């Protein structure tokens, strides 16, 4: 592989260096393109061919179905690690020692109260508000209640801002759900682990003890780990680009939440459940919907099948399928929607159309099933995704600031009118 690429424009040859990542990914470094060509730019809608940064955080290979955080395989992390350990790893680069993890958790707990006036903001939202909108607004509001700016060159300042948002975010997640259900907004229980505390904050009824279920704790721990980072996707790129203007961490994360909300991104797990609901309401005939999915004249697609990056299998789906079976079997959940999901999965896995196109259930298919079985309302699914993705966003924001990346400012190719004289409205 040559260490340079040659671009010929108008008979003039220009050389650009290539760089190679640690997994042998090759990129052409065009950062000098405009300077050496006198203003020529590139066009790459959706940035499908553009590396926006170098990063040490997450590696994924869609062809081989590989996903690693800081070099550790997602399979091993999901099997052996705790979500907080993975959060620490993603943000700070190394797995924590026992002492560092204990301190991290203690520090998070000391930040797990939000200003009580946040309740007033929640009260102002209608019950019908989508919890992602509520979460994004509340995260942004945290800036007003915690106005101190972060000196990114101070490791202590950086650490404090990281634990502040990680400590407060689960409270906002739980409150976004409880507001919708008309339940009192309470704080968690600092004697519990991070995941146990999230479950208790979400599900505790005012007149009952909350009893932890180990299967649900394990399932949520895995789901959060599997969603914790996915390199430069839409929401992560948003967090980095907002942060590149030196906007604060809360503001950058709030923007990331808005990006995640869309049905083409984090909203897909909600779309899966809405599809299953629609199939149920239409009589539950899975074969009919399989036929619709294969019919090229019908726009219907099986939501939760296929993936833009993973073309052979989604490594996260492999892991979470086992957990979904565990949750459904061990809890003995009886739910026609979940029966439809199982039926579609079985049919698709043995159907030539899906096999030939390598269309397998993706992580969103199973995460929707698990959240449904856990009793989490459909509109909260993307909020749960945000809870998992938070450490990834923070780690990427921190990396961008520490690398002193310049403000993100893409170019465009202008295709509008050329100069023309103003016409007064009278004419
Ligand atoms: N149901 C039926 N057919 C499908 C599906 C599906 N879910 N997905 C792809 N196909 C078919 C296409 O029609 C196409 O068939 P053809 O070759 O005969 O024309 C072939 O499979 C390839 O499809 P593409 O659209 O080229 O695949 P692409 O990589 O562009 O799309 C995507 C990937 C968007 C995820 C797609 O599979 C899809 O729409 N899936 C359903 C939505 C979904 O689950 N999204 C969540 C993704 S996971 C995540 O974001 C975390």
Could you walk me through the main structural features you see in this protein, from its secondary elements to its overall organization?
- It is built from 18 helices and 6 strands.
- With about 425 residues, it is mainly alpha-helical.
- Strands 1-2-3 form a 3-stranded antiparallel beta sheet. Strands 4-5-6 form a 3-stranded antiparallel beta sheet.
- The longest helix has 27 residues, at about 155-180.
- The mean pLDDT is about 95.
- Bound molecules: acetyl coenzyme *A.
- Acetyl coenzyme *A binds near residues 301, 303, 308, 357 and 362.
Could you tell me how far the N terminus lies from the C terminus, measured between alpha carbons in angstroms? Answer: 63 Å
How many H/I helical runs?
18
The 3D shape can be described as globular
**SS elements, strand count:** 6
Average pLDDT reading: 94
Helix content: 40-55%
Q: Classify the secondary structure makeup into a structural class.
A: mainly alpha
Outline the biggest β-sheet. Answer: 3 strands, antiparallel
Adjacency order of strands in the biggest sheet: 1-2-3
Q: Percent of residues in beta strands? A: 5-15%
